[in-house]
Amino acid sequence: MTIHVKFFASLREQLGKSEVELDTDSAITVLAVWQQVTDHSPLPEHTLLAVNMEYVNSSCAVKSGDEVAFFPPVTGG
Amino acid sequence: MFIEVREQGFEPYQLIADYQSKANFAGKYGATAVFVGTMREFNEGDDVATMWLEHYPGMTENYLKKISEEAESKWDLLDSLIIHRVGEMRPNDPIVLVAVWSAHRAAAFDASRYLMEELKSRAPFWKKETLPDKTRWVKKNT
């Protein structure tokens, strides 16, 4: 299954990419998505997580075709 | 309910006047609460020359709609409006405009505060400042 992964703001700059596709055979959590696309880096503290543009926690299950996003605390307004 | 994320600058007071003149709540509203967030020329003791606002297209609009719907369910509102800039901006540029119309003032005051606080904690926008000698991401909202 294919998962679309996006990064924003300072996290996008640190990783040097704004998006990546992840192919995986098994059911997977958001935290496992992070580990697979960053070569097992620790998830930075306070990182926010979204699946299909809704906030989730790191144990949320991801399915094929989902869009998973990682980004720092928001600073709009 | 009106929501817009835009790159072009805007004049908030003209925009409110235009929106109100076309609204279907003429004669019904007794209260309009307006909040305008404007870019400062300083932050955390440093001069800020320009600022760049990034967002998550799609999720941003979803959350602005979500918080507007929450405000409508909590208070008796006639209408609400949120406009937020993205991209490059300069000191004195309006960044965000929130307006709420209701029959009486309490709902307008409370709902406009709610919309701004929820926007700041949940809508996926990020600010990057250009200082005289470097750029930096704003780490958290105050």
List keywords for this structure.
heterodimer; A: 77 residues; alpha+beta; Ubiquitin-like (UB roll); five-stranded mixed beta sheet; two-stranded antiparallel ribbon; 2 helices; B: 142 residues; Aldehyde Oxidoreductase, domain 3; four-stranded mixed beta sheet; four-stranded antiparallel beta sheet; 3 helices; 10 strands; elongated
Topology:
The complex is a heterodimer of chains A (77) and B (142).
Chain A: E1 2-7, H1 9-15, E2 19-23, E3 28-29, H2 30-37, E4 48-51, E5 54-56, E6 61-62, E7 67-71
Parallel strand pairs in A: 1-7
Antiparallel strand pairs in A: 1-2, 3-6, 4-5, 4-7
Chain B: E1 2-6, H1 12-22, E2 31-38, E3 42-43, E4 46-47, E5 50-55, H2 59-74, E6 77-85, E7 87-89, E8 94-102, H3 105-122, E9 125-130, E10 135-137
Parallel strand pairs in B: 1-6
Antiparallel strand pairs in B: 2-8, 3-4, 5-7, 5-9, 6-8, 9-10
Structural account:
The complex is a heterodimer of chains A (77) and B (142). Chain A is an alpha+beta fold and 77 residues long. Chain A has one domain (2-71): Beta-grasp domain (Ubiquitin-like (UB roll)), CATH 3.10.20. Chain A has helices spanning 9-15, 30-37, and strands spanning 2-7, 19-23, 28-29, 48-51, 54-56, 61-62, 67-71. The longest helix of chain A has 8 residues, at 30-37. The model of chain A has no long low-confidence stretch (mean pLDDT 96). Chain B has 142 residues and is α+β, with helices and mostly antiparallel strands. Chain B has one domain (2-21, 28-137): Molybdopterin biosynthesis MoaE subunit (Aldehyde Oxidoreductase, domain 3). Chain B has a 4-stranded mixed β-sheet with strand order 1-6-8-2, covered by helices on one side. Chain B has a 4-stranded antiparallel β-sheet with strand order 7-5-9-10, with no helix packed on it. The chains are: A alpha+beta (77), B alpha+beta (142). Chain A binds chain B through residues 6, 8-10, 48, 50, 53-55, 69, 71-77, and chain B through 37, 53-56, 58-59, 62, 84, 95-96, 116, 119-128, 137-141.
